Amino acid sequence: MNEIRREPLLGRWVAVLSESMKPEDYHSAMEPSTAGHCNLCEEGAGGSEEIYSVRDDSGKWLVRVVPAMVPVFSPEGDLGRKGIGIYDRMNAMGVNEMLIESPRHDVPPEDMGSEQMLRVVETFSARMIELEKDIRIRHIMIHKNCGVPSGDACGHSHSLITAIPVIPKRVKEELDGAKQYYEYKERCIFCDIMREEERLKERVVMETPYFLVFCPYAARFPFEFWILPRIHNCSFRDVKEEEKRDLSETLSIMFRKLRRLLKNPPYNYVLHTAPSRIPRRNHWHTLGEDFHWHIEVMPRIKSIGSFELGSGMYTLTTSPEDAAKYLKEVSHGD
Fold first, then answer.
1. Statement: residue 47 has pLDDT above 80
2. pLDDT (tens digit, 9 = 90+) per residue, 181-233?
3. Is 278 helix (H, G, I), strand (E, B) or coil?
4. Which terminus of the chain has a smaller tally of CB atoms within 10 A, N or C?
């Protein structure tokens, strides 16, 4: 079974595969599969074990959730926590799911339309509610790779749902930062950021009844933008129907803007949401007040160099103010 190891200096968790790849396995570059050889297309996905689906009146699937093709985590077994000298490890218990966003291979997110995007967003919520029932799960991450440089080797539009028994360091840092801000000011830092960005306007890309889209003040990637809900809520699982519809339209518009402005760039996005709120000692007493779910979209148009890897400090080649101006001005029409 795969395992999770904890790095003792920084507290970083790493998943390690039980069957190591050989050097020659890394030689061939990953390329997207063609529609004729895609396991996620309408015909190819028929043989996969179905976890969840949205279907039309005729029974044809519109959105489908299946196990990941190469799962790192397994829902079977216990955690098997163990200390090995100064090191900590546990079994890689968890869930890897693929959310197939359309039966058609040739429909990227920006072309699927807001109604289909709404089905995807509603499936995010449904799977999160179901996975949180497992008391072993500490954190659920919904994320997407689009384009080969982002980690997508499939070519058929899909998202990933990963549920794990630990809270990753990057997530914990965000949670701790929000908690410390709340303890000092008794306000949500995300709500304060939203108010400040609305006041200044210079980094705002788009405003809707339920969301603010802006390029963050200290972005890591050129043209990175966040989608922040106006209604304070720590968990995506609790969003209302009207928010889901607005989010679907917002995502569709922003993905079309990205394509037109940056000529179909690779990108990643991550939905940041509260960890499982199963009561734990000394944890999450103010989570509902201090954290605020949101989506971060990161175009992968600039490589990460040795300085970024060694220091954790990113070099931004387009300022957030200029990026927001370009994104705001570019048309999202076809």
1. no
2. 999 999 999 999 999 999 999 999 999 999 999 999 999 999 999 999 999 99
3. coil
4. C
Collapsing DSSP to helix, strand or coil, 259 comes out as helix
Helix locations, the chain, DSSP H:
113-131, 169-185, 189-200, 241-262, 287-290, 306-311, 320-329
Q: What is the pLDDT of residues 96-129, one digit of tens each?
A: 999 999 998 888 899 999 999 999 999 999 999 9
Q: Which residues pair with 159 in a beta bridge?
A: 99
108/143 Cα distance (integer angstroms): 15
Cα–Cα distance for residue pair 182/313, rounded to 1 Å: 25
What residues contact 88, with CB distance under 8 A and at least 6 apart?
5, 6, 8, 81, 82
Nearest of 188, 197, 205, 198 to residue 293 by alpha carbon: 188
CA atoms within 13 A on the CB side of 52: 19
As a whole number of angstroms, the distance between CA 163 and CA 264 comes to 30
Residues 143, 12, 142: CA angle, nearest 5 degrees: 10
d(CA 267, CA 273): 20
Which tokens belong to 183?
Answer: 């303890």
Q: Model pTM greater than 0.90?
A: yes
The rounded Cα 54 to chain-centroid distance in angstroms is 21
Gap between the Cα atoms of 154 and 139, Å rounded: 25
Beta-bridged to residue 83, according to DSSP, are: 88
pLDDT digits (tens, 9 = 90+) for 281-298: 566 789 999 999 999 999
As given in the structure block, the two tokens for residue 269 are 């996005």
pLDDT at residue 153 tops 90: no
Residue 103: burial class (beta carbons within 10 Å; 0-12, 13-18, 19+): middle
Domains in the chain, start-ordered, CATH in brackets?
A: 3-21+31-329 (3.30.428.10)
